Amino acid sequence: MASLITLTALPRSADAKPKALRRAHYVPGVLYGPQYATRSLQFENAGLQRILQQAGTSHLIQLSIDGQDGSELVLVREIQRHPVTRALLHVDLFRTQADVAIRLEVPIVHRGSAPAIAHGGYVNTLLDALEV
Hints:
Elements: E1 5-11, H1 18-23, E2 26-33, E3 36-44, H2 45-55, E4 61-65, E5 72-81, E6 88-95, E7 105-107, H3 115-118, E8 129-131
Parallel strand pairs: 1-4, 2-6
Antiparallel strand pairs: 1-3, 2-3, 4-5, 5-6, 7-8
């Protein structure tokens, strides 16, 4: 089994404005899941960028929240980015349960080259992700 990716979050107060958080190099986010109260969180921008690049939306992430004992297993459900600068605006995390099945999309990664390319052919891929 691959090693778990670890992410640390800080609880976000209700009066914290997202624009002010982004200026301070934090990304606002939310953690939710079945039978679980929604929590507002904030993440360090540089650390979150690195984790999202490693995990994408199909790997489990071990989330530890400052001031809380233990950790949660989460999946990245949605990432919101600025349309021009591609800067992170907001991230949604989904809390998983070990005994409940979930559905997610796994990206297809093509490796190597097809023999037809050497003879002047083309490869046309119809899928770039599978729902599992």
